[in-house]
């Protein structure tokens, strides 16, 4: 049984990692590290906008509806 991801999924993984490296602070410790709830909520709103701008929301939606038409495997890679 081959448990390796296909090349296109690995390319997508590299894209996701590049976005994270470019968009998150180098010292990012996760949303739980933001103690102030208003600040955390503001970060979440901004982060959603960033993900949308970078094409990482609705990736399995059809292209004609604003998605990228990717597979569920790509969704798994994104969540990982």
TrEMBL record:
Coiled coil: none annotated. GO terms for molecular function: flavin adenine dinucleotide binding; oxidoreductase activity, acting on the CH-CH group of donors. This is Acyl-CoA dehydrogenase. It comes from the Bacteria. Transmembrane segments: none annotated. Keywords: Oxidoreductase. The lineage of its organism: Bacteria, Bacillati, Actinomycetota, Actinomycetes, Pseudonocardiales. InterPro entries: AcylCoA_DH/ox_N, AcylCoA_DH/ox_N_sf, AcylCoA_DH/oxidase_NM_dom_sf, Mycobact_Acyl-CoA_DH. Residues 8-80 form the Acyl-CoA dehydrogenase/oxidase N-terminal domain. Signal peptide: none annotated. One of its GO terms (cellular component) is plasma membrane.
């Amino acid at each position: 049984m081959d448990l390796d991801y296909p090349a296109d999924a690995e390319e997508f993984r590299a894209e996701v990692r590049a976005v994270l490296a470019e968009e998150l602070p180098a010292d990012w410790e996760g949303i739980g590290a933001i103690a102030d709830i208003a600040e955390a909520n503001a970060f979440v709103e901004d982060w959603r906008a960033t993900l949308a701008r970078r094409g990482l929301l609705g990736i399995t939606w059809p292209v004609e509806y604003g998605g990228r038409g990717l597979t569920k495997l790509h969704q798994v890679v994104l969540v990982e």
